[in-house]
Design a protein that fits this description.
720 residues; eight-stranded mixed sheet; globular
Length: 720
């Protein structure tokens, strides 16, 4: 029996869970439409990265002799993708039929009345036509070079005369909304796809230029291989070399071609030939609409129950009751859990540092940031205020390379010291270090997190952020920045888990300790929460721990190659996955350690790339209150019986069942309430301490006054 599930199969199972949310009637209907957009966006990335990698392996496997195995896996992936596409189309149809019961209609170009057609033609002329630049297809055109990745095109076929004409029109959804709301005189809401607006305007585009009687339009989309050759040319700077590498992606090999299933077969064959796609490539028939990722921005329409109600932000009592963020952190470690807390606490931390006269330097590493980043603004302000600012920019952050090149240039122009990390190691850690001089003493304030410094994603991703002044930990954070700048050094980390230096061996050692404790009769368990668990070495270690009686509870959002619940292999391993309104993103490890738990938050998933080929940092949670808080959050998630699916060996995505008498737990909502109650208690404790302090101070003042009066009386008597 194979004990390791291919990660690609597991990934498809994860995206199947996203489709489950789109079909779940308990989810507000507009959110369900947007989940179709999430699924589509995920699927694009899957083909561009995972499937493209498999196809490269297929070429190599012809030489190695395992061609059949890779080919079989690729075929299974394509079949599953086709089945999911059918499910997607059915859900899409059902959702818009349901929307019609609320007087919300999505119409195609043939369903419009005369007044609506007139409005669409006017809209096309004034808002769309200027963005239409057809490409006329002939025998010499190179479609591989022309077609853009992930864009939707209309394949135009003009017939009815002696000559047939073919053209391609890019749907300009980057500058015009993909879904357009038409005006209405009644209470109906009528929507139309931009695709169909263009269909109505086809004669405006082509009449008078081409001789035809009939004109047809079929939707198509292509995905390219997202990998590229990053060459560090000696005579090129890092930014220029990286820019050239991104351009290579624009002409990379197609890996998927999706088309309207009503397109004539000879036209499909013609396009496949032009795109140089073989029978091993993914040719996927679909409906007349592609790029459902645009449904992510589906308009907020209908009643208040059509979308998730916003959750009120939890207030950090520690930050809110302190004069500055530094005062709060100096008193006690602070833990934030986004998006329940606002990311503003971190941006305020940086903003204060940018002009605080005691701050001498700021160091931070950037992987992905928001388009209008307050983080970048504060770093530039700090440099303008004379602070020493060092920013490590990861130029190889997939799909964010162009943005990071832009940020690197802007920071460099502002006088910030910009480092580009290491050619062979992506820098994926989430570190920020601020050094202040307080009473002639150097004090370090460190941030160690599980998510990016990104205001946008911090509103929808769950992530931990730890703020600490712990001397040993902050020194080690400083040492990580030194290692990035001077990689020939080999620092020793006693507290931090740093990939690729010590993380793998330290995790192995902690698993082995649980195995030993279980074997000798001591309590032993492991709690694990990561996005992906696909590293063979760690999986084998967990299998061994399970066989030795260690209870292992995992929450894995995405890929999971471990097969849980198999007798004599993994019967002590239980795994669930939570897909809900927020994207579960933190990485967390808890090792029982004979009931004195070791707990780490980290930027690293349990993947080979994260442990051996990236710089990742995990931090121990030493504060007992914070340790208890994180364990309680994990236990709430482990008890979820509303949005949790069981991840078993078959990857069937069965929901966790509610047993009779068991309370219903939707963990993301329950955690919000837990943190509200917790912060209320913390605030009361702080206020009580302040009240006690004031009482003590008043008492001391009274005693001081009494003593002063007594001394005065004695002096008077002495004089007499």
């Amino acid at each position: 029996m194979e004990t390791i599930l291919p990660k690609e199969i597991s990934w498809q199972s994860f995206n199947g869970r996203v489709l489950q949310e789109a079909s779940d009637p308990s989810v507000p209907i507009i959110e369900r439409v947007r989940f179709l957009g999430i699924y589509s966006s995920n699927q694009d990335e899957f083909f561009k990265v995972r499937v493209a990698d498999l196809k490269r392996r297929l070429i190599i496997s012809k030489e190695k002799g395992d061609y059949n195995e890779v080919s079989k896996l690729l075929k299974k992936i394509q079949n599953t993708a086709s089945e999911y596409q059918k499910i997607l189309n059915k859900i899409f149809q059902d959702l818009f039929e349901e929307l019609e019961s609320y007087n919300i209609y999505l119409k195609d170009e043939k369903e419009l009345n005369e007044a609506q057609v007139k409005w669409v033609k006017k809209y096309f002329k004034h808002h769309v036509l200027k963005h239409i630049n057809p490409i006329i297809i002939n025998d010499n055109i190179d479609l591989v070079s022309f077609l853009k990745d992930q864009y939707t095109y209309l394949m135009i076929r003009m017939t009815g005369t002696s000559n047939e004409h073919l053209a391609l029109i890019e749907i300009p959804s980057d500058v015009v909304p993909r879904i357009i709301r038409m005006p209405s005189d009644d209470d109906k809401i009528t929507l139309i796809f931009l695709d169909n607006v263009i269909r109505i305007g086809l004669d405006t585009i082509f009449k008078g230029l081409f001789d035809y009687k009939d004109i047809e339009a079929y939707s198509i989309k292509m995905n390219r291989d997202a990998d590229y050759d990053l060459t560090s040319a000696v005579d090129k700077g890092v930014l220029e070399s990286m820019s050239d590498s991104i351009k290579q992606r624009l002409n990379a090999k197609p890996v998927r071609f999706a088309y309207d299933r009503n397109m004539p077969k000879q036209l499909v064959a013609f396009l496949a030939g032009k795109l140089k796609m073989s029978e091993e490539d993914s040719l996927m028939p679909g409906n007349r609409y592609h790029n459902f990722k645009d449904l992510l921005s589906f308009p907020s329409i209908g009643g208040e129950n059509f979308e998730n109600p916003s959750l009120p932000l939890v207030q950090s009592s520690q930050f809110d009751t302190a004069i500055t963020p530094f005062e709060a952190i100096a008193k006690k470690d602070v833990l934030l859990y986004y998006p329940y807390y606002s990311f503003d606490y971190f941006t305020e931390f940086l903003r204060h540092a940018s002009y605080d006269p005691k701050v001498k330097s700021i160091k931070i590493n950037i992987y992905r940031v928001a388009n209008n980043s307050l983080v970048i603004d504060s770093l530039i302000d700090a440099a303008n205020n004379g602070k020493s600012v060092t920013v490590v920019v990861e130029l190889k952050a997939r799909f964010d390379e162009a943005n990071n090149i832009k940020w690197a240039s802007r920071l460099t122009d502002a006088g910030v010291k910009v480092l580009f990390g290491l050619p062979t190691l992506k820098i994926h850690s989430k570190l920020c270090l601020i050094i202040r001089k307080e009473n002639d003493k150097i004090v370090r304030y460190a941030h160690i997190g599980t998510g990016n410094f990104n205001e946008k994603t911090a509103k929808i991703y769950t992530d931990f952020s730890l703020f600490t002044t712990h001397e040993e930990i902050t020194k080690e954070v400083d040492s990580v920045f030194d290692f990035i700048e001077y990689p020939y050094t080999r620092p020793n980390y006693k507290n931090l888990l740093v990939s690729p230096i010590n993380a793998r061996n330290r995790i192995y050692a902690m698993i082995d300790r649980e195995i030993e404790n279980s074997s000798t009769g001591f309590p032993a368990y492991i709690y694990l929460k990561v996005n992906n668990l696909v590293d063979n070495g760690l999986i084998e270690r967990l299998y061994k721990a399970s066989q030795c009686g260690v209870k292992i509870r995992c929450i894995i959002r995405g890929m999971c190659s471990l097969k849980a619940g198999i007798p004599n292999l993994s019967e002590n391993i239980y795994i669930t996955s939570i897909v809900d309104r927020f994207l579960e993103h933190p990485r967390l490890m808890v090792f029982c350690n004979n009931n004195d738990p070791d707990l780490y938050i980290t930027s690293a998933d349990w993947m080979t790339r994260n442990l051996d080929h990236r710089i990742e940092v995990g931090a121990p949670i030493l504060d007992q209150d914070l340790k208890e808080r994180i364990i309680n959050i994990f236990r709430i998630q482990a008890s979820d019986n509303q949005k949790a699916r069981i991840i078993d060996a078959e990857q069937t995505n069965e929901y966790v069942q509610v047993t009779e008498g068991e309370p219903l737990v939707r963990s993301q909502i329950a955690i919000s309430q837990y943190l509200f109650d917790l912060e209320k208690n913390i605030l009361e404790s702080i206020q009580n301490k302040e009240g006690s302090t004031k009482k003590e101070q008043n008492k001391e003042k009274k005693e001081s006054k009494t003593q002063s009066k007594d001394i005065t009386k004695k002096k008077v008597k002495t004089k007499v």
